Amino acid sequence: MKLKLFLPTMMILPLLAVSIFGQGGKGQDENVPTDTVPLTYGVVVDNSGTYRRILGRIIDTVIAIADEHSANDEAFLVTYVDVSKTAIRLEFTNEGQELREAAEEMYIQGG
Fold first, then answer.
1. Using an 8 Å Cβ cutoff, are 43 and 102 in contact?
2. Number of Cβ atoms within 10 Å of the Cβ of 100
3. What pLDDT score does 98 carry?
4. Would you list the DSSP string of 3-31?
5. How far apart are CA 21 and CA 23, in angstroms?
6. pLDDT of residue 103
7. How far apart are CA 107 and CA 47, in angstroms?
8. How far apart, in Å, are the Cα atoms of 16 and each of 56, 71, 76, 83?
9. Is residue 28 situated within a structural domain?
């Protein structure tokens, strides 16, 4: 997967949100290519006014991730502005198209 990610505006939480299943687990076939290992990941995006000028790039990055999403992957999308304005925009899904649509619906909110 060749993605040029814009990570300062988007956090992909490695400990809480990203988990690669099957690596080194019992019964795992060592000959299975790593690009077929299912991923479970979350995308957390700051939708505060600070990012108004770059929201388009953030959305494009999430769409690029969604386009690489395989049928066995799971993802969720959370947006936040501040503690009182945190929202789950998309609960865990196997559908990359749902992640894409949720990203396209993101907008800047006042904080």
1. no
2. 19
3. 98
4. ----GGGEE--TTTT-EETTTT-TT--TT
5. 6
6. 97
7. 7
8. 26, 21, 12, 18
9. no
Closest CA to 15 of 42, 38, 55, 48: 42
In the block, residue with structure tokens 């925009």: 89
Q: What is the bridge-based pairing of β-strands 86-93 and 74-80?
A: antiparallel
d(CA 10, CA 45): 5
The token duo for 18 is 């990203």
What is the model's pTM?
0.70
Residue 27 lies in a domain: no
CATH value at residue 87: 3.40.50.410
Please tell me the predicted confidence (pLDDT) of residue 24. Answer: 45
Domain that holds residue 70: 7-20+38-104
Residues of the chain with pLDDT under 50: 1-2, 4-27
